[in-house]
């Protein structure tokens, strides 16, 4: 029901749509679609708003997403290990709090994992 006017009659002014949480791009809409990039392009795919056509975010390559999950799993297992030296423990703790690791940090995680893998196997 629309709010009443000053004279008590119902207003015919449109009611604004409820505001959804804004994404970093400023688009308030929810419906999206994925546009895949060319195979040699630096990005894999982009997420676009269906209603206004704004760019919302980049979609990671599936291989990168799998690699990041694997590294996160290794960091979680290493974080529970009591066999790490203090430097390795701090490195694993700091790496667990980051969104992404650099290639050098990933290589260091692999190095620590290989050194302690026998202790961590289930």
Short description:
By secondary structure, the protein is α+β, with helices and mostly antiparallel strands. The chain has three helices and three strands, in the order E-E-E-H-H-H.
Topology:
Elements: E1 32-36, E2 45-49, E3 55-59, H1 62-79, H2 86-96, H3 103-120
Antiparallel strand pairs: 1-2, 2-3
Helix pairs in contact: 1-2, 1-3
Describe the protein in words:
This protein has 122 residues and is of the alpha+beta class. It has two domains: 19-59, no CATH class; 62-120, no CATH class. Helix content is 39%, strand content 12%. It contains three helices and three strands; from the N terminus they run E-E-E-H-H-H. Strands 1-2-3 form a three-stranded antiparallel sheet, with no helix packed on it. The protein is elongated, with a radius of gyration of 24 Å.
């Amino acid at each position: 029901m629309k709010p009443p006017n000053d004279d008590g009659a119902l207003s015919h002014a449109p009611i604004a749509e409820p505001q959804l949480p804004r994404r970093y791009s400023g688009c308030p809409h929810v419906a999206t679609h994925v546009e895949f990039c060319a195979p040699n392009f630096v990005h894999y795919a982009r997420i676009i708003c269906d209603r206004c056509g704004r760019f919302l975010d980049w979609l990671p390559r599936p291989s990168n997403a799998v690699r990041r999950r694997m590294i996160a799993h290794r960091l979680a297992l290493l974080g529970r290990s009591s066999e790490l030296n203090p430097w390795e423990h701090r490195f694993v703790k700091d790496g667990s709090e980051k969104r992404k690791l650099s290639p050098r940090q990933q290589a260091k995680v692999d190095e620590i994992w290989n050194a302690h893998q026998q202790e961590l196997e289930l």
